[in-house]
Amino acid sequence: MSNATDPDPSPPSSTREGEEAPSSAPRTISILWAMVPILTLVGTLATVILILPAYEPGFEGTGHLPLIISGAVAALIARAHGWRWPEIQGGVLRAIHLAMGAVLILIVIGMLMGTWLISGIVPALIDWGLMLLRPSYFLPASCAVCSIVSVVSGSSWSTAGTIGLALIGVGDVMGVPSPYTAGAVISGAYFGDKLSPMSDTTNLAPAMAGTDLFTHVRHMLWTTVPSWVISMTIYTFMGLNLEVQPMGGSVDEIHALIQAQFSPSWVHLLVPGITAVLVLRKMPALPVLLLATVLGGALAVFQGQPLGTTLTTTMSGFAPDTGNASVDELLARGGMMSMTSTILLILSAMFFGGVMECTGMLRTLALKILSLAQSTGSLIASTVFTSIGFNILAGDQYIAVVVPGRMYGPEYEARGLHPKNLSRALEDGGTITSPLIPWNTCGAYMSTTLGVATLAYLPFCFLNIINPIISIIYGYTGFSIAPKDPETSSGTPPT
After folding, report:
1. Nearby residues of 51 by Cβ (< 8 Å), 6 or more positions away
2. At CA 27, angle to CA 25 and CA 29, rounded to 5?
3. Per-residue pLDDT tens digits for 313-371
4. Secondary structure, 3-state, 274-296
5. What are the beta bridge partners of residue 175?
6. CB under 8 Å to 273, separation ≥6 — which residues?
7. Using CB atoms within 10 A as the burial measure, which of 10, 83, 112, 219 is most buried?
8. What H or E segment, with its residue span, contains residue 58?
């Protein structure tokens, strides 16, 4: 992933002046009490997303209030068990700190989208995509392109925020349903995020499990490559059977309109080209995206856009007036303010997840799952499901990798399993499913950047769905599960 933050959720060693000292009394929270905030979250989400919209037409529920309410319930339970508020607040602040990298990138991506739209970069990419791509092979091509870019960059977020944004526009003009396109983009983006040595989660998982980076990457090929091949096959069949209706007129009409309004030329390739070079040179994501935003704004001004209009677009988003309502709707996005709801959702999730993690309730739930794992297959399945659960409950994929990695490491060692089995399971459950959760930092980012609701694109993220299933099947069959001695492993991973 692209939002590099400190993944260590361990508590601070000291108390600030004026705060209450931590209680020394036993404060273990039972599994029954730990389940109460979970049930509260499920109940409130069902109320605002399913029940109220059925009774109040026009009401659109979100996860913001359910997460805050459930976090407050968790805090009350922790307080009743002896936890002091400064400790709880410290846990929440650490969780928010963990998500600040994601928040900063969200803000910059919103600005980048605005400048790349007003400067004509995105319209030019859409126009060229219309000339090069056809609906029959658009979905597998989108997945393949995003796979290559994400492997090179190591960032699913940068891939979706640049190439993915343009592909969404191309697909919309062609008449390809946007959830289909978003699913293909995210599948490709997370293929690279999971395998690239430059990805932070690809480095984090083996560090938590106790193995080295390239051993981890080679072992992941066993689950990731088959998942990618199956996904590409499904996208190919979908494309061959796709019935499309071009948006707002024929593709030729849209092409002519973009040519007239934005005059696409080689100049529009300069900023994406510079961005690609910096990514290839392994520059940090945030400064690269900031520079790309500035260059996009400079290009807009160079082409005659007023400076004030360009700055307003950076803040509030692009407001085109092409004379075609469908094209205007396609290009009307971006801006820092467009990320407000997503950022609030992430902060709400961090409040809930921070309380649950720092008070040990997530650990209690995970240990209960571990106690049920009697075989190697059930241990792998428990690791995958625990990482998915932490994605749901903690709202951040770093926690979904770090906490289960710390907890399950001794069990893998005790059972004579190579730590690369653990690191692979952490990624198969934690990294790959993070964009499927609406309030997870990754799900919120993908939904806002691509303009498609998380639950709308979820069924079409085939790689993200298939990968955990294959991982669990391998666990129960023993295929590619390596013992501690690497010489007794089951062979060489596919290439």
Report:
1. none
2. 165
3. 999 988 888 777 777 777 788 889 988 887 888 888 889 888 988 898 988 887 888 78
4. HHHHHHHCCCCHHHHHHHHHHHH
5. none
6. none
7. 112
8. none
* Cβ–Cβ under 8 Å, residues 369 and 408: no
CA gap 336, 413 in Å, rounded? 47
Q: How far is CA 135 from CA 92, 169, 245, in A?
A: 46, 13, 10
Following DSSP, what letter does each residue of 200-269 receive, concatenated? HHHHHHHHHHT--HHHHHHHHHHHHHHHHHHHHHHHHHHHHT-----TTS-HHHHHHHHHHHH---GGGG
Closest CA to 74 of 397, 345, 354: 354
Backbone angles phi, psi at 417, to 5 degrees: -105, 140
Which residue, among 1, 417, 407, 425, has the nearest Cα to 219 in the 3D structure? 425
Task: Identify residue 364 by its one-letter amino acid code.
Answer: T
In order of 50, 95, 280, the CA distances from 65 in angstroms are 14, 18, 41
- Is residue 280 a contact partner of residue 151, using CB atoms and an 8 Å limit? no
Task: Give tens-digit pLDDT for 2-59.
Answer: 444 444 444 444 344 444 444 545 478 899 999 999 899 889 888 887 788 878 877 7
The amino acid present at 352, given as its one-letter code, is F
Average pLDDT, the chain: 84
Residues 255 and 262: their CA atoms lie apart, in Å, by: 11
Is the Cβ–Cβ distance between 191 and 228 less than 8 Å? Answer: yes
C-alpha–C-alpha distance, residues 428 and 434, integer Å: 10
